[in-house]
Design goal:
alpha+beta, 2 domains, two-stranded antiparallel sheet, 5 helices, 6 strands, globular
Length: 167
């Protein structure tokens, strides 16, 4: 049997980081972060890159250590009341190859943290062009129009419900 990418030590490290979210603590334990969190994440992405092609040639898994699918550990605290410097979860983004920006295009997101893990699919901060015409001309190319139902529950959200698998 193949060795697991993530073992309980990743969640133990993240839980300890949650309780000790300070730069001095993290710097002392950076080798643990590399060994149990970052390197397994990059190996997972590199191996997933090959298998993802069987699912969709449009999804990108980029194993680059910087700017790839693995999100960085550092939080952007510029506009936050919470000044904790580090994220207490692992995030990975697998975006659509045609997206002009990896984060703002459609794709998959994998989230690992001690409280729970999930895999999500969709689009983040799509903008007003998406709200007006969510699939544009691509919708017709991949799905018949009667398989897609749109509801606008609020001004800033559009839900897309695919009734049948169409990809």
């Amino acid at each position: 049997m193949a060795q697991a990418y993530f073992n309980p030590k990743v969640f133990q490290f993240l839980e300890q980081l949650r309780r000790n979210n300070r730069r001095a603590w993290f710097l002392k334990r950076r080798p643990e972060f590399e060994e149990f969190v970052r390197q397994p994440g990059l190996r997972f992405i590199a191996d997933l890159q090959l298998r993802l092609r069987d699912v969709s040639t449009w999804l990108v898994a980029d194993p680059k250590p910087n700017g790839g699918s693995l999100f960085r550990i550092y939080r952007d605290v510029r506009f936050s009341k919470d000044k904790s410097p580090y994220k207490t979860h692992v995030g990975m983004n697998f975006w659509h190859a045609s997206a002009s920006e990896a984060v703002h295009g459609p794709g998959l997101y994998l989230h690992l943290e001690p409280k729970g893990c999930f895999l999500a699919g969709g689009i983040w901060q799509a903008g007003s062009a998406f709200a007006d015409d969510p699939w544009g001309s691509r919708r017709q190319a991949c799905c018949p129009a009667d398989n897609i139902h749109l509801r606008k529950p609020g001004l800033n959200r559009v839900r897309i419900q695919l009734l049948d698998q169409c990809m």
